[in-house]
């Protein structure tokens, strides 16, 4: 326990808080021994119950995602994935670089989480099931909140990403990553 806390210089390895530090074991497959990190009570509570996520608290991942500790990188990637409906979090996830072993650790965790989820499938306007990486076409002009442009009917959105809400997908339109209601697209 003291190894992770001393490595972190007495600070949370995700948000740099100096209070309530304790050891957190990042789930890993196989016999990894380097999966302990030092986290504050706030980070641990929000990781345990993602329904209570304080989005602004997790902006700290902008710094911690660059850690040289693989377990910290994995936890940062997992939380950015959890927050991927936020534009800033998706941008950080797009920038994040992980070596092959660390990426495999993240991928294994994401696959396990997908199996655990009893999520309903994401369906387009015609009832066709959508998958990550699909290309869809917008079927109605959509005003994009927070921007001054309209996503025009007939615009192709390539390489979509699914969210934890089966009614939403994410994709890039006019170079901006946006969330689109799945009922306003059709699979192409």
What secondary-structure arrangement, pairings included, does this model have?
Elements: H1 2-7, E1 22-25, E2 36-39, H2 41-48, H3 61-64, H4 70-82, H5 87-95, H6 100-116, E3 136-138, E4 142-143, E5 150-151, E6 156-157, E7 161-162, E8 168-173, E9 176-181, E10 185-187
Antiparallel strand pairs: 1-2, 3-6, 3-10, 4-5, 7-8, 8-9
Helix pairs in contact: 4-6
Question: What report would you give on this structure?
Answer:
By secondary structure, the protein is an alpha+beta fold. The model has no long low-confidence stretch (mean pLDDT 86). The protein has a three-stranded antiparallel sheet with strand order 6-3-10, with no helix packed on it. The chain has helices at 2-7, 41-48, 61-64, 70-82, 87-95, 100-116, and strands at residues 22-25, 36-39, 136-138, 142-143, 150-151, 156-157, 161-162, 168-173, 176-181, 185-187. Helix 4 packs across helix 6. It contains six helices and ten strands. Helix content is 30%, strand content 18%. Strand 7 (161-162) and strand 8 form a beta hairpin. The longest helix has 17 residues, at 100-116.
């Amino acid at each position: 326990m003291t190894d992770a806390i001393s490595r972190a210089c007495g600070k949370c390895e995700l948000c740099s808080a100096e209070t309530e530090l304790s050891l957190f074991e990042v789930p890993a497959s196989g016999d990894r021994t380097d999966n302990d990190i030092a986290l504050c009570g706030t980070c641990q509570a929000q990781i345990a119950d993602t329904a209570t996520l304080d989005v602004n608290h997790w902006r700290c991942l902008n710094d911690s995602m660059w850690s040289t500790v693989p377990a910290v990188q994995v936890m940062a990637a997992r939380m950015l994935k959890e927050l991927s409906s936020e534009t800033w979090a998706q941008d950080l996830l797009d920038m994040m670089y992980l070596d092959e072993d660390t990426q495999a650790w993240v991928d294994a965790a994401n696959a396990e989480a997908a199996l655990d989820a009893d999520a309903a499938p994401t369906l387009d306007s015609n009832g066709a099931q959508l998958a990550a990486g699909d290309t869809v076409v917008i079927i109605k002009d959509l005003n994009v909140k927070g921007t001054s442009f309209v996503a025009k009917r007939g615009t192709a959105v390539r390489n979509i990403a699914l969210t934890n809400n089966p009614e939403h997908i994410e994709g890039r339109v006019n170079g901006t990553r946006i969330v689109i209601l799945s009922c306003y697209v059709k699979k192409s």
